[in-house]
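Quick one: structure for this chain?
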Amino acid sequence: MSHALEIVTLGVIVAVGAGLARRFGWSAPLELVIVGVIVSFIPGVPEIELDPHVVIVGLLPPLLFAAAIHTPLVSFRAERDAILLLAVGCVAFTTVTVGLIAWWVVPSATLAAGLALGAVVAPPDAVAATAIARRIGMPRRLVTILEGESLINDATALVAVGTATSAITAAVDPGRVVATFVLAAGGGLLIGWAVARILIAIRRHITDPVLDTTLSLVAPYLAFLPAEAIHSSGVLAVVVSGLLLGHAAPVVQTAASRIAVATNWRTAQFLLENVVFLLIGLQLRGIAQGVGQERLPVATIVGTCLAMLVATIAFRFVWVFGCTGIYHLVAREQAWSWQESAVVSWAGMRGVVTLGAVFLLPAQTPNRDLFRVAAFAVVVGTLLIHGSTLPWLVRRLRMPSPNAAEDAFRAAEILTEANRAGLAALDEARTDEDSLAVVRQLREQARRRDAAAWEQVGHPSAHREPPSATYRRLRRVMIDAERRSILDARDAGQVDDEVLRFAMAEVDREEAQLDRVEDVQMRVDEHLLAAPPPDPDACDDLRDAPPVIPARTPGECEDCLREHSSWVHLRMCLTCGRVGCCEASPRRHAIEHFHESGHPVMRSIEPGETWRWCYRHEQRDGA
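Got it. Here's what it folds into:
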């Protein structure tokens, strides 16, 4: 009963803590670590000491798998050089340099013990990087690099920890170290690929979302456990299988299965990653008591912790800027800017792997409890320092954040092409025996979806509600009435419960779709209210075009007036002032004007909007 109460308490603290973090814009990982530290010193709270195998085997595989299935494989391949430089090179460099510092700072420590501590604190954490980087709107390319690094560097670090801990108790053969690393990497890649191919083949024959979700939840362990059984990298096997399964999901899974799997993994990831950070904080009391038993001077403890924290942060800067400098000399076009290097260097938060790996140090490790508290200091210190200052650094360096409005524009273009492909397929598939009413309905649905996608690009006018918004508003009124009618039937006992559940599921499914559309629109609207920093990579046409010029027909599309047509949103040419209607309007006069005149830049003249679009280079700026 006590264990059940502890689990429930952890869940409640995580839910409340993460909810408050979202409400006030705090860093959830940092907040939960602090809460865990405070709770650990409350009288009567039981001491919690994590079994390292629970962390490495129980928590790490699903956390890495959840991150891997949402990491785009195409982007991962495009950034593989940078990812490997960080995930392998930086981890190895940090292991050696920080290990030497530990050997120097703690006189009683052996070189092998120092290298073991260096390997423990070397890998940045995938959970911390994703949670903070996405929250602050870091450029997607850097987010992909940091996520890729955090997915792979765990394997490098754990191999290094195992080698160093072996050296504590026995001599190490350099040839054996190389062979171990090759087996870990090669075996992990092979098993991850094999598991992914098998699961992809199975998924092609599964249409039940419940079965598909069950298969997805056990997939991390299907990759991890066989790899570990042959002494390969289970972490790497999980990452490879997750990347491949995520990439293949749109082809081999049904839409219902993808939605169910995404929802369940989002819930599992939320619980696991936040419980991990809470547990990190709860370890402090036990670690402090352990180091207290060694009766070390306070100055030694504080000095060691500070030295490890500073060295961990500093040597990441040395590696990143060193590699950037080399790239500037030999491959300038591939080199990062100094701003990108600064952000990548400062995004080295540590987390669950460091916490679990430090408990793998054998009992005969000199100053083991001191090393544990030093590793804890690195985890909390990097979360506190990097987590609290990284948003400021990104803003200070004027790093361009993902533009939700531009995303909506790109999505509208893609959906337009998809609609054209769908209509072409409809024309090929239809026969003379098919109902004309059904064909017209399919065409109208495609047209409405196309128009709704383009409406996401523009901000609704204060005096004109877009058709899709009108549809959602009125459909919600209908859904509320439909739900009340179904509930009345339930309360009256007129219909069997199975029938009622089916009817309610149909209503809920459409309401959930409306919720997703409105959530996307809300994110677009929030972004449009905050002007982004100027884009230094903007095209020449955008740089040369004025912010605004007098409109020839303010508030009206002159072509629509002449043709007695209607419009949804209005755009103005910044070369001649001609006002045309947007791509969601029936006649699409704005883009037609570009094709006829060659004038490249237009801007929105809807209330509250200042964004401009270059048709020639397909670039956008402004808010």
